[in-house]
Amino acid sequence: MRAVLVVNPQATSTTAGGRDVLAHALASQVKLEVVETGYRGHAMAIARAAARDGIELVVAHGGDGTVNEVVNGVLTGEDHGARTMVGVVPGGSANVFARALGISHDPVEATHQLLFAIEHGGGRRVGLGRANGLWFTFNAGLGWDADVVAGVARRRGKQTSPALYLRAAVACHLRPPLGRPPLTVRIPGEEPVEVRTAFISNTDPWSYLGSRPVHLNNGCSFDTGLGLFALRGLGLGTVFRHVRQALREGGDQRGRRLVRHDDLPNLSIESEQPVNFQVDGDLVGQRTRVDFVSVPDALTVMV
Predict the structure, then answer these.
(1) How far, in Å, CA of 56 to CA of 133, rounded?
(2) Using N-to-C axis directions, what is the helix angle for 42-52 and 64-74, rounded to 10°?
(3) Among 169, 174, 203, 246, which residue is least crowded by beta carbons within 10 Å?
(4) 77 Cβ partners below 8 Å, 6+ apart?
(5) Distance between CA atoms of residues 37 and 42, nearest Å
(6) In the 8-state DSSP scheme, what is residue 12?
(7) Do 2 and 56 form a contact (C-beta atoms < 8 A)?
(8) In a 3-state reduction of DSSP, which class is residue 286?
């Protein structure tokens, strides 16, 4: 098997020593090329070229942003996703996609899992989401959460932490950088609904607070459609109620200000003013409309 290992040296938990150990271990079972990323979008370009050349496996060693770029690169062509598999060895701070697949947060243990899967022909087809043509593996959003992502991106270096996200969340709630323009959620067959923030999930948990899972749509998985979690208001009482529910075991979300669906094939969200838009924890930019689509069995993950 031919494989490309894509390493993001700026990811939180990646080190030169860890990269070398991972590369040596993989090279014992595959014909391996190792490439380090040097700029945003580089991992996507590497994965796109690998898929175009018929490489069987692209392994992402980095955070969720690196994984997202690799997935988007592999799935650029019409049939690349059917021929090129993706492997993940976590190297970031959250690693939501990897955890949802049962991949260890520890890079060494994750490497052992990947080697076992390669040796025994492991591969799992997973559904993904698309947002205005961009693939996402676990979550996308507009409004408050995207404001938080934008705030964290401005402040962090290589190191990040749950505390940084919490500070950014509080700051963006008290002083939203773009205000709080209403968002209109449109679901086929239903009346439009006005909300103030919206999260679109492809699996659950949606994120992690350290080691603690954060649940928004506990009926959502890689085998279902998309989950919608949206709030009609962002008053302190509403926010605290749903934060508490999100951190409970099982995380069943309920509330009169909540708009929730767990298995949607598609939906759209519009705003009269540009709002921040994030995909898999990375800020994409500002948008006035995003169309979301669930794509079953979009990708094969070596796991």
Answers:
(1) 24
(2) 30
(3) 174
(4) 48, 51, 52
(5) 6
(6) T
(7) yes
(8) strand
Nearby residues of 91 by Cβ (< 8 Å), 6 or more positions away: 7, 8, 11, 12, 13, 14, 18, 61, 62, 63, 66, 107
Average pLDDT over the chain reads: 92
Cα–Cα distance measured from residue 134 to residue 136, given in angstroms and rounded to the nearest whole number? 7
The average pLDDT across 34-40 equals 96
For 98-107, what is the mean pLDDT?
93
Distance CA 139, CA 287 (A): 16
Query: DSSP string of 14-77?
Result: --HHHHHHHHHHHHTTSEEEEEE--STTHHHHHHHHHHHTT-SEEEEEE-HHHHHHHHHHHTSS
Q: How many residues appear in the chain?
A: 303
Q: How far apart are CA 146 and CA 98, in angstroms?
A: 21
